[in-house]
Write a structure and sequence with these properties.
Shape: elongated
Oligomer: single chain
Structural class: alpha+beta
Number of domains: 2
């Protein structure tokens, strides 16, 4: 079987052509994105509000309502990345951060494992946005956040998964 062929290398991911055999014995090529993984966080204020963000996404040409999130750095512990990204994007530092689940974002073309956390005991502070980021915090009640998943205001997959997991988590 041919070795994977790197088609594109960027600062955050690689695009590769990989070969896989099918039951009929043929080899088929697939182009996939190899990603180091990422974190997303459900940040909960003591009064039950959820800290969302409005984040401009060049890929879709507009701002989306999302949970804070970010890419893992090489060798970085996901819990540390979650704490870092939460503080950078919202200014909040978590007193507690707990893992909820892990999932693949779009396994048909993308090898990105998302690590989902819930953060509580939040302490406010300044944001530290990366150059070029256009992010603003959006504080909503837990019920309002969940309603936004069904009325079309939230279209981002990691945020849909995160808020639905939050709904299950808060009922337990």
């Amino acid at each position: 079987m041919p070795e994977p062929e790197i088609l594109l290398t960027t600062s955050r991911f690689n695009v590769v052509r990989q070969w896989h055999p099918t039951p009929d014995g043929a080899l088929h090529a697939r182009e996939t994105i190899i990603h180091p993984g990422a974190v997303t966080i459900v940040p909960l204020l003591p009064d039950g509000r959820v800290v969302l963000i409005r984040n401009f996404r060049p890929a879709v040409g507009r701002a989306l309502i999302e949970l804070p999130a970010g890419t893992l750095e090489a060798g970085e512990d996901p819990r540390h990345a979650a704490q870092r990204e939460l503080e950078e994007e919202t200014g909040y530092r978590p007193g507690r951060i707990e893992p909820l689940c892990q999932f693949f974002m779009s396994p048909g073309i993308l090898r990105e494992r998302m690590h989902l956390f819930v953060a509580t005991e939040l302490v406010p502070g300044p944001t530290r946005l990366d150059e070029g980021e256009q992010i603003e915090p959006l504080l909503v009640s837990g019920d309002e956040a969940l309603a936004m998943t069904s009325d079309g205001q939230i279209e981002d997959a990691k945020t849909l998964v995160g808020l639905l997991w939050y709904q299950c988590w808060r009922k337990s």
